[in-house]
Design goal:
The radius of gyration is 19 Å and the shape is globular. The protein is 36% helix and 22% strand. The relative contact order is 0.15. Helix 2 crosses helix 6. By secondary structure, it is α+β, with helices and mostly antiparallel strands. The longest helix has 21 residues. The protein has one domain: 3-Layer(aba) Sandwich (Beta-lactamase), CATH 3.40.710.10.
């Protein structure tokens, strides 16, 4: 989605009793694009925000959700309301709540890689030499499992391993090809986004778990990037390749697709998963994506779950429930 002119936010607060400290939860926003303030009420979306409150109440976790159904129809919800500075999981609450991306950042990286290839006139079938010693052992890597001795791989193959299979070695090899995390961060900022940060590789995150907090985004920033991508998905072979690859994502089938796969035309998504923390909590379970309805309409959504006192499967089920609720809104009211 391309945002032009002055973005005006009407904030409707949905108050909920959130633990004994009474923090504000269930905030949502109608983002109204254009000039001037336009008072608007959306009782239907308010009801769906109440539904999000109910789903979130089933787990002890920090949760952030955003969805874009079209210009002027944007939902932002979180059960986190806080303020502070530094590499924290949240900042300033509301639409500014930060969540660790984990492998969601491989979507950002893929767009930057394709921009690099486009500008350099490098086709997707150009090969990259991958020596065996560049394939780390202690990390998720289907590429290494199939090719332990390394080899020559096309950019298309590396992007498929990274995007569709969430391969950490493939991700870091691609970082090396285009100039590292800073190059990805700079490219995404050139698209007009700012509420995110990409600062470290997969290897750095695995060597220091706190480094995961350096790759963060707000849910709203994630869906805005998805909308930018939607508008460009057919613009050239590189964007089409990313779209097709994300549509064939092999990870997280119990997350966004879990409740809606049989009810929609296409789901193009990218997952992110963190490790178990020392206290037994799940550090992060994420999924972002674009859902295309049978009639051709679409919506973008992002669901981030972190610091969860439940199982990985429960986190995935939570994401599936939220995706199902957001689809209901799209089917009944959006468009």
């Amino acid at each position: 989605m391309t945002i032009s002119g002055k973005t005006i936010v009407q904030i409707i607060l949905n108050l909920a009793a959130a633990a004994a400290i009474g923090i504000i939860v269930g905030l949502y926003y109608k983002y109204l694009y254009g000039d001037g303030h336009v008072p608007a009420e959306n009782e239907e979306m308010s009801d769906f925000c109440a539904g999000l409150d109910s789903i979130a109440a089933s787990v002890d976790a920090r949760i952030g959700v955003a969805a874009v159904y079209g210009p002027g129809d944007t939902l932002v919800w979180s059960n986190v309301a806080s303020s502070g500075t530094g590499e924290s999981l949240s900042l300033c609450g509301d639409e500014d709540v930060r969540f660790p991306m984990m492998s969601v950042m491989k979507f950002h990286q893929a767009l930057a890689v394709c921009d690099f290839l486009r500008r350099s006139s490098i086709p997707l079938d150009s090969e990259v030499d991958v020596p065996a010693d560049s394939l780390e052992d202690d990390t998720w890597s289907p590429l290494r499992d199939v090719h332990p001795e390394g080899g020559a791989f096309t950019y298309a193959e590396l992007l498929t391993y990274s995007l569709a299979m969430s391969d950490n070695n493939a991700c870091d090899i691609l970082f090396g090809c285009i100039g590292g995390p800073d190059a990805v961060d700079s490219y995404i900022r050139s698209l007009g986004l700012s509420d995110f940060r990409i600062a470290c590789t997969e290897a750095e995150m695995h060597s220091d778990r706190t480094a995961c907090l350096r790759n963060w985004t707000t849910p709203l920033s994630a869906v805005r990037l998805l909308e930018v991508f939607w508008d460009r998905r057919d613009s050239d072979e590189y964007h089409r390749f990313v779209w097709d690859t994300m549509s064939g994502c092999e990870t997280g089938q119990e997350r966004i697709p879990g409740r809606i796969a049989g009810r929609v035309q296409t789901i193009a998504h990218k997952t992110g998963t963190g490790d178990m923390l020392s206290d037994g909590r799940v550090s992060a379970v994420n999924d972002i994506g674009i859902v295309v309805l049978p009639d051709g309409r679409h919506f973008s959504l992002a669901v981030f779950v972190c610091d969860a006192a439940c199982t990985m499967l429960q986190c995935e089920s939570l994401i599936a429930d939220i995706a199902g609720l957001l689809l209901e809104y799209a089917e009944e009211y959006a468009g």
